[in-house]
Amino acid sequence: MKVRFSWFTPTNGDGERIGLTKPEREPDPDYIVAVAKTAERVGFDGILVPVGTPFLDSWMVGSAVVHHTSKIRPLIAIRPGFIAPALSAKMAATLDQFSGGRIDINIVTGGSPYELGQDGDFLSHDERYSRTSDFMNVLRKLWEEKQVDYEGPFYAVKDAVLIPRNKQPKIPVFFGGSSDAGKEVAARHGDVYLQWGEPVEEVRRQIEDVRARAGKYGRTLEFGIRIHVIVRETEKEAWEAADRLVSDIDPAVEQRMKQYYREADSVAQSRMNRLLQGDYRFDKYKWAGIGRVRKGAGTAVVGNPEQVREGLQEYIDIGVTHFILSGFPHLEEAERTGQLLLPLFEKNDSLQRQA
């Protein structure tokens, strides 16, 4: 199966250094569109539009990306609980029509009670995943059936009809969650199970677990990794860039992140936090230093092009076929990654087809 690569829209700011009190670059529309157009030009298949309190609205940004590109697939992250599933289905179907059938949806249940509370969501961890499952039931039925009657623990619709219909017969859904509740929702509703860039053996265990759970429902999933890359012509240059990236972290920002980590109820985040020790290095060419000031995806593959390829290949060898990459600043790093790294995988794909 072809390995697909996506990039990232930095909708909470960008720059050459992270952990500052204010980003070096604000996420204005021109910049966001420039990142998306660059990612499309250099060969990325998709681009993730994140969701959450610190980010711009994902639907608005996704629409801007759709209307300024022609091939790249926006992966639009949404949170159940803030918009009714019937309206979410309509918004997705409308944008799917506008894009010619090239959007994906990333369902994000949320792992921080504090951040969710800022938006008025106070459900417990397992209740959130139960609501997500109910949300997905309605979403799927509206995308795939002509008329829907449904009553669940959180949502109900009567004689529901989706107008407009989605362009794609089935809009692909990316989903992440490392708790038992999260993995059950992924197994039942997801198309791509998405993890952060954890150690390979941990990722393998998660893949095997979710694959077995999906099998109980007669389903098969694909698997993805969300991780940063710091790729340079030489290994020395790459590690110098990594050091420079975290060279001006504001102590107050790092302290706030430590507080966030203590309060989060995300199982995956707790595992990511354990990587923040020593020199932050693990596996082949991987580094967790970004996690000092960035929640969620806080790891990177660092090195020359062949080393970064090897670091990602570790995941491919255990069944990963989707990568959502990023780098700081995202405009220049999209260009660099497209020039130095993506051609190595295109060459491998060509050799495999010939074999």
UniProtKB/TrEMBL annotation:
The keyword DNA-binding does not apply. Pfam families: Bac_luciferase. Residues 4-322 form the Luciferase-like domain. One of its GO terms (molecular function) is monooxygenase activity. The keyword Flavoprotein applies. Keywords: Flavoprotein, FMN, Monooxygenase, Oxidoreductase. This is Alkanesulfonate monooxygenase. It comes from Paenibacillus cisolokensis.
